[in-house]
């Protein structure tokens, strides 16, 4: 089951080979498609679902309920990481990537055809939540597989850059979702809330077909194939082994990742809703969110490459300190009721800060776990952070604004606490960029 020697050497020496280009392309494009689906829901939760599925609750509670369904997907992500991680550590990375894409695409298309509350009553939000949970399970398995597919094929000195292709799929998928929603919103006008919002969800079917063609051509990772002969001898399921032998690593890497996901939840979900609710033009908000996503992708690749040179911990520490210093000004700008304020906040906060944190994070987490439980361990940490950092922050921020009588200072304090905890956690980890993956 091992790869031919020529392929091993090719993937060990350079990223610029036919096989590596296909692998990196698969990680990037597959992640773009999966995160298009996942973040499309977040955009719709900010702009549509409170009026379509929860309009009978009133403005404040309807938005809270909409964000609660958003959180349901994030709660399901660790479960997806556990399920897909188990089989990914036992059967291989590639098979899980194909399955996660099919699961995500099916759920997204069904949301596009879901009747509203006015049409079928309480069944509509119930089914919406169930489909969102399926999305969460699917994307929970996607990140670990896409990251490890790139990381475990890459040469040692370029692992950070290779792993960033999976992480860049997040903002790139978000950009694609934002552009599609913005275009459909402009084309359908007043009909956007009636039926136009469904178009981006149904379009997912075409993207899934493209992604499947690409993913089916990618080979299993050499590191896993080397392990494969020994896998049958492992007595404990991967999750049990992670919790028994690596609990500290799970906790520390999860906390270290929280700041990255809090940026996403506050800036691109809660912030979008706050801006539109205060009267800022919806198309303008979506367009600037798209600009920020472009910046995020560029900074993500740059910081990942930098982490290959100076280390993951150094890059994450620098980005974390910058985030702490900028948190309060960014929250104020985000909610000042102007398009320029939103634009500055989302480009700096989402584009620069989140991009710098996103670049090294895939390699940073994955390098902390041994090959036999890497899919499970890395997924558990990353998806746990996504659940807390992005899944609950829009809902928590909405509650904090209500508690502060409309003020946003409590949201800024909340964000700073998360960022400081992440900084401490980063400093408690070992530097993984110099480690051999099969010796971790």
From TrEMBL:
Keywords: Cell membrane, Membrane, Transmembrane, Transmembrane helix, Transport. It is a multi-pass membrane protein. The chain crosses the membrane at residues 28-49, 61-84, 96-114, 120-140, 161-183, 195-216, 249-273, 285-302, 314-334, 340-365, 385-402, 408-426. Its main location: membrane. It is found in: Cell membrane. Residues 23-430 form the Major facilitator superfamily (MFS) profile domain. InterPro entries: MFS (IPR011701), MFS_dom (IPR020846), MFS_trans_sf (IPR036259), Sugar_transporter_CS (IPR005829). Pfam families: MFS_1. It comes from the Bacteria. PANTHER family: SHIKIMATE TRANSPORTER. This is MFS family permease. It comes from Arthrobacter ginsengisoli.
